[in-house]
Design goal:
By secondary structure, the protein is α/β, with parallel strands linked by helices. The protein contains 13 helices and 33 strands. α5 packs parallel to α7 and α10 runs parallel beside α11. The chain is globular.
Length: about 600
């Protein structure tokens, strides 16, 4: 039975990070292009992409290159040339947002539509399938029920985020950063205004909250929902974090590898698409690396507790303060706290405070003079120094298990190396005189010891069969040469048999389900306009980055609802108070909040003059 492939997809800040992700269990990685990726600070050279592809393909893991900004006219020629270089470097797919790219003279590379493409409804995704895209990366806002509905209406491959930082806005539909400082998220330059400390005011201008990160969400953690998402139709599970450190990458990739493997065991019709196994000498724990607290972020099913209350890392809850001394606290925890740990807590005004541990005695921590913590406060550890050291020195080595079989031929011996349950098998023979062993057991032990060595190859020996020849002595040099030949041959066969799926993007004129598009389609160049016109669409406005639209426009649309958060939602809190957030303000700049209660959405608009 052919298994349905289910992929764990990890971020790669660079080639080193990408190889680490593969060693810790990723089936695929995504890495930034030299230019035009949605993380402008995570660029990589063609040489690095090629290095990563060569490594990944040994294990039949894939490499996707993020090329997902919108492009300007003067960048089109350079972009096309760069895409050809990315393809020649060995990349398996290109992740794009700008539909103008499809009008270029492209190499036969698979195209994935970035989450920046606003992939949240079946009509749009059906269209993308019909025009020959290979995969769509779904909007983070979608619940399993919504994903299942899309899956039942389309055959295109579905990828979904399962872990990491959350943009509060619908992806590709945020213009707040561009409005406030000219740094566009659609150009990979987002200044993250959603993480700022805002003032909120009611409709009369009364201050409700002061200097609070009211738009900053908890980070996503859908590890408990992997099976639900798998059965809903997700085939690639994506971890966010191309800007995160390597400890985060190791810990989170290892954690999701274990979680996903458990899901696959319960669903035998699905399987891992890459080769090789990883082992870890630590227990992965997502609470021990950067996080703002976690939420599954299925807003249609759970609207509670979306706000993080901070833009900084919370880490792992340790316990509450049970005793307060003059300059010390004692907390209720069974975990060891040591010097160098970073601890934090929310003060009485709701602001996250932190300090480094310098002296402890059991559960008692001695404080710097200027730290004030009340009894009952929850203490978090956002820097676990022991865990960080463990991750820093731990490097998983991914190995592919093989079976060896030594056999006798008329004029010597032969050796077979095989990856079980695959087509990969290599056989080599050596002509050598058969010399009976003086000490059969000792000769056999030496034979097994020599055959068990795999050196720098990507293999480990699962078993060795010596059905014949146990009673013979083989010179170590001959045995080593035979072993090296089969391992080298198997490694070559693995590389030669890796087949990248080439896919030519064929133009068609299938009509889009809408006849007109405004600035939110992010059309920023002549090729993108040509694409949409060919599919029967009238382009009414260019991208925000080309020309700021006139009139009242939404700068951000979110599933987060500050009216709901304030307990004043007419749907969930009938008869509640009337004063709720109507304005947000930062350094004198004000924006108006508009609530679309029928859709459970909130819009942020420039305040009218």
């Amino acid at each position: 039975m052919k298994l349905i492939p289910v992929e764990l997809l990890s971020p790669a800040k660079n080639a080193e990070f990408g190889k680490t992700a593969i060693d810790f269990g990723a089936d695929a990685v995504y890495i930034g292009a030299p230019k035009f990726g949605a993380r402008a600070a995570a660029r990589n050279s063609i040489e690095e992409i090629k290095e990563l592809c060569n490594y990944a393909h040994r294990f039949h893991a894939k490499v996707y290159v993020a090329f997902n900004t919108i492009l300007f006219d003067h960048e089109l020629q350079e972009s096309e040339k760069l895409i050809h270089e990315i393809y020649m470097a060995g990349a398996d797919a290109l992740i794009i947002q700008d539909m103008g790219i499809t009008e270029m003279n492209l190499p036969p590379i698979e195209l994935h539509v970035s989450t920046q493409g606003h992939n949240v409804d079946a009509d749009h995704i059906n269209f993308l399938e019909k025009i020959e895209f290979s995969r769509v990366i779904l909007g983070r806002e979608l619940s399993p029920g919504q994903i299942s509905a899309i899956y039942n209406q389309t055959d295109i491959e579905l990828e979904a985020f399962v872990h990491g930082a959350l943009c509060v806005s619908y992806s590709g539909q945020c213009y707040l950063s561009a409005n406030m400082g000219g740094r566009s998220g659609n150009r990979g330059e987002c200044a993250q205004p959603c993480r700022l400390a805002w003032n909120t005011l009611d409709s009369d201008g009364k201050l409700l909250e002061k200097d609070r990160p009211v738009l900053s969400l908890h980070d996503m953690n859908r590890s408990a929902n992997l099976e639900q998402l798998l059965l809903a139709g997700v085939r690639s599970f994506k971890i966010e974090g191309r800007m995160k450190d390597i400890s985060y990458l190791k810990n989170i990739t290892a954690y999701y590898r274990e979680q996903l493997d458990d899901v696959l065991k319960r669903n035998p019709e699905f399987g891992k698409p890459s080769l090789g196994e990883c082992s870890f000498d630590f227990i992965p724990d997502p609470l021990k690396t950067f996080n703002r607290g976690y939420h599954a972020y299925f807003p249609d099913e759970d609207r509670k507790n979306l706000r993080a209350g901070t833009s900084k890392s919370l880490g792992k809850p340790l316990g509450e303060v049970i005793e307060k001394g003059v300059q010390s606290i004692t907390i209720s925890t069974s975990e060891k706290i040591q010097n160098g740990d970073g601890l934090c807590f929310f003060d009485t005004s709701g602001v996250l405070r932190g300090f480094a541990v310098q002296q402890t005695k059991g559960n008692t921590i001695f404080l710097p003079e200027d730290i004030q913590i009340d009894k009952g406060a929850t203490i978090y550890r956002n820097n676990d120094s022991a865990f960080a050291k463990l991750l820093a020195r731990h490097n998983s080595v991914r190995k592919i298990g093989i079976v060896l079989e030594l056999f006798i031929i008329e004029k010597g011996f032969g050796l077979i190396a095989e990856i079980p349950y695959t087509k990969y098998r290599v056989e080599k023979i050596t002509a050598i005189e058969k010399t009976p062993a003086r000490d059969v057991e000792k000769a056999y032990e030496s034979l097994i010891a020599q055959l068990s060595k795999t050196g720098g190859t990507p293999f480990y020996i699962k078993s060795i069969e010596v059905e014949q020849g146990k009673g013979f002595f083989l010179p170590i040099s001959a045995l080593n040469a035979l072993r090296r030949d089969v391992l080298s041959g198997l490694e070559t066969k693995l590389g030669n048999h890796y087949v990248r799926i080439d896919r030519v993007f064929e133009h068609n004129d299938i009509p889009y389900y809408k006849s007109e598009l405004d600035f939110r389609a992010n059309i920023s160049n002549k090729l993108a306009e040509k694409f949409w016109q060919r599919h029967g669409v009238k382009v009414n406005e260019p991208a925000f980055e080309i020309e700021v639209p006139e009139g009242e426009i939404p700068l951000m649309e979110t599933k987060l609802c500050l009216r709901y958060e304030a307990g004043a939602c007419p749907k969930y809190h009938p008869g509640s108070r009337e004063n709720y957030p109507s304005i947000i303000e930062y350094e004198g700049r004000r924006f108006r909040l508009k609530y679309q209660c029928d859709l459970c959405r909130m819009e942020i608009l420039p305040e009218s003059d």
